[in-house]
Amino acid sequence: MADTVFGKIIRGEIPARIEHDDDSCLAFHDVAPQAPVHVLVIPKRPIRALADLGPGDAALVGHLVVVATQIAARLGLADGYRLVVNCGRDGGQSVDHLHVHLLGGRALGWPPG
Ligand code: AMP
Questions:
Q1: How far apart, in whole angstroms, are the C-alpha atoms of residue 103 and residue 80?
Q2: Is the separation of the CB atoms in 103 and 34 below 8 Å?
Q3: What SS3 class is residue 3?
Q4: Which of 27, 33, 41, 42 could be bridged to 99 by S-S, CB 3.0 to 4.6 A?
């Protein structure tokens, strides 16, 4: 898999505002936030996209989601929030390293564009 900006963040080569760090995942604030809270939760293992996941990745993906919910609680998103995973060009994915967006802190519109 080609290196990405998220690979550089994992390796500490470029700065990020880290919210969570463990053996398998990292969470940091998005550089161009689309809501008052906009955090990205990513696996440390380079997985390009949702479309590349296999059955053996179920626990990892579940972990990403649980970590996102823990961050949401810690950051006070008691009125709700949204988790988004964009996949591929039509899905709006711009960084080819799997990531879960945690968005909250305002009422979010639906449907997305
Ligand atoms: P997506 O369009 O779903 O691939 O989301 C990629 C996200 O990564 C966008 O919301 C970008 O603002 C964010 N992003 C890109 N570069 C950085 C960076 N260096 N630090 C934090 N977030 C970034």
A1: 9
A2: yes
A3: coil
A4: 42
Find the residues whose C-beta lies inside 6 A of ligand 1: 5, 14, 16, 30-32, 40, 86, 92-95
Convert the pLDDT of each residue in 16-35 to its tens digit.
Answer: 999 999 999 999 999 999 99
pTM value is: 0.98
Tell me the per-residue pLDDT of 56-86, one tens digit each, with 9 for 90 and over.
999 999 999 999 999 999 999 999 999 999 9
Nearest CA to ligand 1 atom 3: 93
Sheet strands side by side (includes 100-104): 18-21, 25-29, 37-43, 100-104, 81-84
Ligand 1 atom closest to Cα of residue 28: 21
- Asked whether residue 2 carries a pLDDT value surpassing 90, the answer given is no
Cα-to-centroid distance, 113 and ligand 1 (Å): 18
Is 99 catalytic? The answer is yes
